[in-house]
Amino acid sequence: MQTIWGWLPAIYLFLGGLGAGAFLAAATLEFTGKRYEIDICPITLVGAILPGPLVALGTVLLIFDLGAGLREPWRIFYMFTHFSSVMTWGIWILSVFIPLSLVYGFLEVMDTYPMVWERMGKRIPVRRIKRIVAGVGSVFAVGTALYTGILLSAVGPAIPFWSTSILPFLPIPMMPLLFLVSAISTGIGLTVDLSGTLALPDMQKRFRRLPAIHLALIGIEAVLLGLLLFTAFAQGGAAAQAARDIAMGPRSLVFWILIVLPGFAFPLVVHACALGLGRHPRLVHLGAGMGIVVAGLILRYLVLVSGIPVTL
Amino acid sequence: MLPSNWPRWITVPIGFGVAVASIVFGLILVSSVQAFVPEAEPTATPPRIAYAAPLSGECAACHADQERLEETAASAEEAQSSYVEASLTESTHGRLGCVTCHQGTPETEDIDAAHTGLVAEASVYFQEDCLLCHRELPDEYADDNLLAPHDAVVDGSAEDLTCGDCHGSVGHGYDRVTGEVIISMAGCMECHEERDLDVGCEVCHVEMAAWSPDTDCALCHMVPNVESLEDSNLLAYDHAQEGLACLDCHNDLEGLEQVHEYAVPGGPVSALRVEMEFCFDCHVANEHTSYEQVIQLTADLEEEVGANPHDSHYGEMECRICHKMHEESEDYCAQCHSFGWQVP
């Protein structure tokens, strides 16, 4: 029986989102051709190689959290056929996404360091295969990121805050959307902001449109987060109580200082300045990236611990 | 940023390190920030049966649809008795899903298969499931001065009693005891009589001896008096709709105190006999402020029917002779005449 939703689920939801977001960032460079402007592109290396291990690690934690994982590991296979359950969607999405992203990582390594493979004599159309894998994988990456939120909204009837809708009169759950946007943000944070800034001396010249993309994503995420609290307030009951705890109650310090400040306010200022001035100090850019990643994790944790079950 | 002689693939382990580090970092940050604020209430345990929530779907497709029920049910009565209002699936109990309490087989459209293993009276078999949420069931309800032998039911010493015997279809929005729809002490009495149990007031009601103007009249006068406030055929209903409470008419507090002092449960209740002036005091707006006015108001009946009910050979008559409050009004004239008046 699930007792308290705390760090463990927060970590695997975060890892799932981070992996999916990083994959999407790498796939975007792949499709826009940006990846091929550099021989060894640290952004696609990280974005292609890491999603597999990150999401797999998250999945291991998820199975561990399910409780049956250690005593009756075969029970996980029952989940593949229980089609009316959202858990089954998730397990199929993960079962496709993890191998695809491992293959994508392998192909990216083959493409980046071709010497080893060329010595074997056979020429494989690496880039063409990689494009297909990146394309199909992107669909499942979006699925994985959405799924982290669907999982929560499915527990909805018991914990109304998690099934808060987009708008009071629009019964589409907010969590999947919020988690998707947040996943993309953290993915870009890890691949572009952190790895790109660390390893590419001419990052800012190469990615001139990046601050605008960042601003748009942060803006959308901020609006979604604001709407989540607004709709939860409007919904009343346990959902409003959760929103109150977050915005001005016992969890407000974590919300404002550890999520809004590093994940929204600071990166917003940094990228707005970058857009205006055309450049910004690398250390600040690194800080903004780190802030977005950490805030992404804490956001998930806060949403989880703030869920208040309905009083029966 | 990185030394230029470092290979670029080094960003992969660094990236992994960052992901792991941000988890550690987040853990430390949150716990240190949370140390500055008062300990938040721990998230309560989501009841395990709440996970059954989506299981109402296929049941509601028929049971919330009158037409489909009538097509498939054996009789109109059966259709009526198994009809469930759709809005009830959103109630606190409804959100648990039909199957949580009534079993059966969810997720099938085959009617026979769906009803296999069905349990109509859920609490007979699944009392523990009720107790999962309703953990604290006191034996005495101080606010209502009521006793309820919950302990005896829970530990099984109350023989064959189950939750459902008293709380009936609470899952369907109607609680026989707390009465979201109706309150009926009659239900308690009936069962006590059936089982040959004591039916004295003190069996359930504690400390009910002293009457005060704040006492809820419904405790003793539910049937027929307080109940009549809900019956739109009666004048008491119209008076209640205007916001009048019992004590607005039954306003002789001293007299009430006296009669209640020696009152016995089930003892006689004398009707209040108001004088016409008492009615005139309030009925200003519809011009019932004197007997002459009342005669005028029905003057046109003289032409239509040949008689005016308010201008009879009896002279001035008290309003209450025809216009009753807690029972149906009466055409006093009809004892001899047949004017066919509808007395409001």
What do you see in this structure?
The complex is a heterodimer of chains A (312) and B (344). Chain A is an all-alpha fold and 312 residues long. Chain A has one domain (7-306): Up-down Bundle (Formate dehydrogenase/DMSO reductase fold). Chain A is built from 14 helices and two strands. Chain A has helices spanning 7-32, 42-49, 51-66, 68-71, 75-78, 86-112, 115-119, 126-154, 175-199, 203-206, 210-235, 237-247, 252-277, 282-306, and strands at residues 165-167, 170-173. The longest helix of chain A is centred in the middle third of the chain and has 29 residues, at 126-154. Chain A is globular. The mean pLDDT of chain A is 84. Chain B has 344 residues and is mostly helical. Chain B folds into four domains: 48-120, no CATH class; 130-203, no CATH class; 218-261, no CATH class; 276-335, no CATH class. Chain B starts with 10 loop residues before the first helix and ends in a 40-residue tail after the last helix. Mean pLDDT of chain B is 78; it is low at 42-53. At the A-B interface, α1, α2, α9, α13 and α14 of A face α1 of B.
Keywords:
heterodimer, A: 312 residues, mainly alpha, Formate dehydrogenase/DMSO reductase fold, two-stranded antiparallel ribbon, 2% strand, B: mainly alpha
